[in-house]
Design goal:
The structure holds two protein chains of two kinds. Chain A is an alpha/beta fold. Chain A is built from eleven helices and 13 strands. Chain B contains six helices and five strands, in the order βαβαβαβααβα. A five-stranded parallel sheet of chain B has the order 2-1-3-4-5, with helices on both faces. The chains are: A alpha/beta, B alpha/beta.
């Protein structure tokens, strides 16, 4: 039996004693968990007292009222999220301030319970959290072995692979049922969309192969002298048909050859991704400038586009696996969401750095630095 | 039931699924309005009150459908909502829609698998609309 500590921060004594009473003999036990949980309830009447208990007693769960006499619940939430990331916070809130509770969940609260709540509602909520705490514990154990990352990756991957299959299947069914009548040309849009989804899936698989290579293929790396200018030029040539279609102009600037000791294929992956993104997320009639230079013992690669740009929040996520920026401007752009994560991993392997500067609707600049013989600043 | 008297809101960020579902629902005889995400749906709901909504779960964020459902129930408590789930339910990492407690909390009227057969989907929609008109 494990005991979870629950801290109730509420200025109404009735709520505090009620929660203590409801949870006194409550236990959570599931077949899939190898241990059962019971609960110890700690009480605080103010946010200040709550923070003290958070510091001294390390609760697992905090049930937090927002309207408190001193500092407000959201401030306690902010404190916990900054200092004690592992504590799960649930907002207790009156129905009128649900809006706030929803906002609090986006600021890091796990859930919210509207007041007044029934004992059953409280128990359900605590039960959920207990399962989550259990899963979190499991996650930590798995993470140590790297299995978790693989698991997450595989589940997202299965999602990414199934979505196009589902949509193609849907179209095929519509065609089989002759939903638009008997003329073949009335199905052109469905066929084109299916082909697009297949194309997207193929590019996902190609990216996956790149990723596998990055993560496991170190032994196969073929390090030799590579001219990055040539690789950049080849990447641009490959993309040229697409650039012409979008009326995007590409420029390459460098002082002669830029030689580095690297695996040519890996360098190709980096340039292909950065340049194809710069075209893909550009505006029709835009430009892509790729500059290569030697700088303080490093090679500086800059790819600048005049495209749709990104917000600060979007930039934070773009190097993660399967992240695609979803908004009005990107809704017709396809991609696997793996390109930049592969680029980042490759650059890390060379002890290099990649940075992004971007302004929405003006464009993005990707700065890459690769060390020649010493670490880059 | 005169289907053409009912407007059904469909929200999904996969434009193909959105199109396919819209075609299906229109073939049942219903009027449809669509949105490709939580944000667009919220804007649409400011102007229109549909008779029923079918929402995808994982859109801008992994729980967009849930938030949208929550907000919609607050604005139009009487409009039945179907949450169409597909792949997220299987991963077990994101929001678990098969969990009884989560379901209670989300307050959606039905959770249906995205691959549901047309005739069953039609039945579910009719059932919810009828329930509502009583």
């Amino acid at each position: 039996m494990a005991t979870l500590k629950i801290l109730v921060v509420d200025d109404e004594p009735g709520i505090r004693s009620g929660i203590t009473r409801i949870l006194r003999n409550f236990r959570v036990d599931y077949p899939f968990m190898d241990e059962a949980f019971d609960f110890e309830v700690l009480e605080a009447a103010t946010g200040e007292a709550g923070i003290e208990i958070v510091e001294s007693n390390q609760p697992d769960i905090v049930l937090l009222d927002n309207k408190l006499p001193g500092i407000q619940g959201v401030e306690v939430l902010a404190y916990i999220k900054e200092k004690k990331k592992n504590i799960i916070v649930v907002m207790i809130t009156s129905y009128a301030s649900l809006e706030l509770a929803v906002k609090a969940t986006s600021d890091g609260a796990y859930d919210f319970i509207p007041k007044p709540f029934t004992p059953q509602e409280l128990k359900s909520c605590i039960e959920n959290i207990t399962k989550r705490v259990f899963l979190k514990k499991m996650t930590h154990t798995l993470q140590d072995t790297g299995k978790q990352i693989r698991f997450t990756f595989l589940s997202v991957l299965s999602h990414e692979l199934k979505a196009p299959l589902n949509s193609i299947e849907g179209y095929l069914k519509m065609i089989r049922e002759r939903q638009n009548g008997n003329k073949l040309e009335d199905y052109d849009v469905m066929i084109d969309r299916s082909l697009d989804r297949i194309k997207g899936m193929r590019s996902l698989i190609l990216d996956l192969l790149d990723l596998t290579r990055v993560e496991s293929g170190k032994a196969k790396r073929n390090i030799a002298e590579v001219d990055l200018v040539m690789i950049a030029r080849t990447a641009m040539d490959t993309m040229r048909p697409y650039a012409i279609q979008r009326d995007v102009k590409m420029n390459l600037v460098s002082d002669g050859k830029i030689i580095i000791q690297a695996d040519a294929e890996e360098m190709e992956i980096i340039f292909n991704n950065l340049i194809s993104n710069a075209i893909k997320y550009n505006l029709d009639g835009g430009t892509v400038d790729c500059t290569l230079a030697r700088q303080d013992g490093c090679i500086a690669i800059t790819v600048v586009d005049t495209g749709i740009g990104m917000s600060a929040a979007e930039i934070e996520k773009i190097f993660d696996d399967f992240v695609r920026i979803k908004n009005e401007k990107t809704k017709n752009i396809t991609g696997s969401g793996l390109g930049l994560s592969i680029v980042k991993k490759l650059i890390d392997n060379y002890s290099g750095k990649i940075e992004v500067i971007s302004i929405p609707d003006q464009g993005s600049t990707f700065n890459v630095r690769l060390p020649i013989d010493k670490p880059c600043l | 039931m005169n289907h053409s008297n009912y407007t059904i809101l469909i929200v999904d960020d996969d434009q193909d699924y959105l199109f396919q579902l819209q075609t299906k629902v229109e073939r049942f005889g219903f009027k449809t309005i669509t949105a490709d995400g939580q944000r667009e749906a919220e804007a649409l709901l400011e102007k229109v009150k549909p008779d029923l909504a079918i929402l995808d779960l994982m859109m801008e964020n992994e729980d967009s459908g849930f938030i949208l459902c929550f907000k919609m129930k607050k604005k139009y408590p009487d409009v039945p909502i179907i949450i169409a789930t597909g792949v997220t339910a299987e991963t077990g990492i994101t929001f678990d829609v098969n969990d009884e407690n989560n379901r209670k909390w989300i307050k959606a009227d039905r959770f249906l698998d995205k691959g549901i057969r047309s005739d069953l989907l039609k039945e579910e929609i009719e059932k919810l609309l009828l329930q509502n008109s009583i």
